[in-house]
Amino acid sequence: MSALTDLLSVDGIRLDVEAEDWRSAVRVSGQVLVDEGISTAEYTEAMVRNVEENGPYIVIAPGFALAHIRPFEAVLKTGMSWVRLASPVAFGHETNDPVHLVVALAAVDSKAHTAALAALAKVLADGDNVRALQQATSPEEVLRVLEGEPISADGQGGSPAASAEDAAPALSEQKILTVCGNGVGTSLFLKNTLEQVLDRWGWSRQVSVEATDTISAKGKASEAVAILTSQEIARTLGDVGIPVKVVRDFSSTTEVDAVLRDTYDV
């Protein structure tokens, strides 16, 4: 078992599900959580309202939505569902529509699922793994892909460069914030991708990453050198006194590498 599959069972996976629109897709993913005793129907409707109120920021990579909301009493235990749609649906995202995979996350707190999201970020950063997941014919096959090591060293590039190592921040430590509406799902996913890039650059000791929500980010901005987030959340944040960098594909180490280079002029 891996940290990811600790939270996702065979029964929590549905393949080639019909959904009329994004609301239907989110509700299907939420119903799986209900069926598995992970959350109640109230949590499902809260996930739908989250998109209605904050926009499609949960569509964090091409074709992939991470449905979630902050922890509250409708979450019975931490867990996930995995719904691959028979036909993709539009969430209204500028670049990542249409969505064919909806993973719903319910967490009892902001820490229990951190390792699982880190594992998911690594799986979806590898193109061979993504193709295998798209072609999987059974829930068991999906789990085998999720439990295995990435097929390639890095499916999307973003290899470390000597120039990046040479340009490491002179300060003992700097902080970058990754931000989403709730601070427990998409921001953690982006944090994990960013940390992969920092590890490759050899910057992990100089730059720390904190995942947070929109409200907390405004108060914490003075502690950070930059914020990485989605287009929708960037609009919500507005001017916070530090650069706010938009990342469109939260699973892409290549894109995050480019954003980091732009942030530090590397």
In short:
The chain has 266 residues and is α/β, with parallel strands linked by helices. It contains eleven helices and nine strands.
Describe this protein's structure.
The model is unreliable at 149-162 (pLDDT under 50). Helix 4 crosses helix 8 and helix 8 (186-201) packs across helix 11 (253-264). With 266 residues, the protein is an alpha/beta fold. The longest helix has 16 residues, at 186-201. The chain has eleven helices and nine strands. Strand 6 (174-180), helix 8 and strand 7 (207-213) form a beta-alpha-beta unit. The chain has helices at 3-6, 22-35, 41-54, 114-124, 127-135, 139-147, 162-166, 186-201, 214-220, 231-237, 253-264, and strands at 13-17, 59-61, 64-67, 79-89, 99-106, 174-180, 207-213, 226-229, 244-246. The strands form two sheets. Strands 1-4-5-3-2 form a five-stranded mixed beta sheet. The chain starts with a helix and ends with a helix. The protein is globular. It has two domains: 10-147, Mannitol-specific EII, Chain A (3-Layer(aba) Sandwich), CATH 3.40.930.10; 174-264, Rossmann fold (3-Layer(aba) Sandwich).
Cross-sheet strand order for the largest sheet: 1-4-5-3-2
Uncertain segments: 149-162
Radius of gyration, taken over Cα atoms and rounded to an integer in Å: 18 Å
Our count of helices gives 11
β-strand percent reads 15-25%
**Major sheet, described briefly?**
5 strands, mixed
Topology, number of strands: 9
- Report the span from N to C terminus: 39 Å
The total tally of domains equals 2
What does the overall shape look like? Answer: globular
Overall average pLDDT: 88
What is the CATH third-level topology name of the largest domain? Mannitol-specific EII, Chain A
CATH superfamily of the largest domain, called what? Answer: Mannitol-specific EII, Chain A
Q: Secondary-structure element order, as H and E?
A: HEHHEEEEHHHHEHEHEHEH
